[in-house]
């Protein structure tokens, strides 16, 4: 947890971020290794006004672990394997965070000049997917140096 957002530059000595770079544009923040107090304040404010936001955030971070499971694990009780039942198999069908290509696959029709709103609605209605954002692949064209 960072008290001052600008201190993110000191977390990774090999990373040469500009001190004036915004926190959300730095590598430690993008990788999830650094959280600023301002981000935590924002999450607290969101959950205060919308208690369902905490459930969504918990599901995205833990993959659907329940508070009861967290309590059991916190007390030191481990998980043991057992027989698979319909109920235990249904519990495994929970939300997951993933990255889906828009060049091929179920949402390819939105990959070229598609609108995010159309992608969002189609993914939610057709596949039960909640699109949080887009990751734009940076294509660096190869340059050939001829001597």
TrEMBL record:
Keyword field contains DNA damage: no
Chief location of this protein within or outside the cell: membrane
Membrane topology per record: Multi-pass membrane protein
Location of the protein in the cell: Membrane
The entry's keywords: Ion channel, Ion transport, Membrane, Potassium, Potassium channel, Potassium transport, Transmembrane, Transmembrane helix, Transport
Organism per entry: Sipha flava (yellow sugarcane aphid)
One GO CC term, this protein: postsynaptic membrane
GO molecular function terms listed in the Swiss-Prot or TrEMBL record: large conductance calcium-activated potassium channel activity
Stored InterPro entries: K_chnl_Slo-like (IPR047871), Slowpoke-like_C (IPR048735)
Organism ancestry: Eukaryota, Metazoa, Ecdysozoa, Arthropoda, Hexapoda
Superkingdom per UniProt: Eukaryota
Keyword Transmembrane annotated: yes
Name this polypeptide is given: Calcium-activated potassium channel slowpoke
Xref: Pfam families: Slowpoke_C
Domain Ca2+-activated K+ channel Slowpoke-like C-terminal: 53-141
